[in-house]
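WARN retry 2 of 3 for item q-0093 after timeout on previous attempt; input resubmitted unchanged.
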Amino acid sequence: MRKHVVIFSFILAALPAFAGVTVTSPGNGSSIGSAANIAATATTSCSKGIASMGIYPSPYQLAYVSSGASLNTTLTLDPGTYNIVVVAWDNCGGSSTSTVTVNVKSGQSGVDVTSPANNATVQSPTNFQATATTACAAGVASMGIYSAPYQLSYVGSGASLNTNLGLGPGTYHAVVEEWDRCGGASTAPVTFTVSSGNTLSNLQSKGGWTGYAQQPPTYGDCESCTPSGPGTTWSLQQGVKSPSLSGNAAQFNLGGTMVYTDVLWNNHLIGDGSSQGLPDSNHTLVQTLHNFTYDVYFYGTNMGASQALEFDVNQFFDNLGFTWGHECRIAGGNEWDVWNNVSLKWIPTGIACNPKSNAWNHLTIQVQRTSDNQLFYQSITLNGVTNTVNQYSGPYSAPGWWGITVNYQMDGNYEQSPYAIDVDQLNFSYQ
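OK item q-0093 returned
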């Protein structure tokens, strides 16, 4: 049987040169239920792109075909071992394949997703609820959520999950997966759309950004400092096409001659000085909001030049201030710190922070103001890995302010090495 599959795959791998097919579900060597979710993407060197993709669960049995460079479908398979071949055909006459071997188990096994509903329109943060069953006598070990291919956004132990994910506006083809204690796994896809109703999208391309130098030893916002330095230099360039995910990224630059100096960029989103048309002049909105998600992609060619990168959410009302500060120490030790509003110092979380150079890093931060006005740091997700922070802080006195703002900050190192960070798809969700 394996000999035939190899010959079959070779026949399909026609010229011209092809970049390849990547199967994201099911995992190679996994044990699955009879309802097999199969998801894959393809790339090609053909300038005309991918024409279609297909699935052969066995040699010469074309069970599914879809147009375009991706597929995500469920096939019903009898119990047994399958060498499933996923094929992509390009518009230049070429093709490529990828083979995944799975064991289809008999008995009841699978994932049931109850939230979000398939094809529903939801808000962010998005609530996920699911349960899993398995034919494995030892039971289900854990469950996870892939919000996009290769992006494992959440993992929890046991046969059920109930969690919220901060997601930017758009349509998602998510997959919920269970892993049992016998080495098997099952998946269930769910498609939904995140509404932009309570999300301010692509803020990196919008107005309202103001930069301030922060110089030692006090590190206060220096309103008299100018971007031309020489102690601290900084700039913001919007409308960047490359590198970019949306075609409208923003590049933040830091330099100067004074070592260990920083630049804070601030944007007033809601309330006083709103850049987004949400002035809340009657004070009817800001104090009602409790849950916030800061979702952003960032790219640097030399992350090691950064002492730290900082991402903050701020809320002000009734003379109270709430600053959810998150600092990714890079040259400073590759760890996340959070800001304590009472002691006025950074608190190490023990969570590693290792952003990649020459690649897009996806960061999602979730925070909450509790019903008794405490700051609650919920979670940090970097490149698909979610860590629970679970730390609290009290507020501070902030007379005269009313609104919600976000910060992005770059810190200089011991040489004040100049560096740039490109930011894209910066979305802020509130409720």
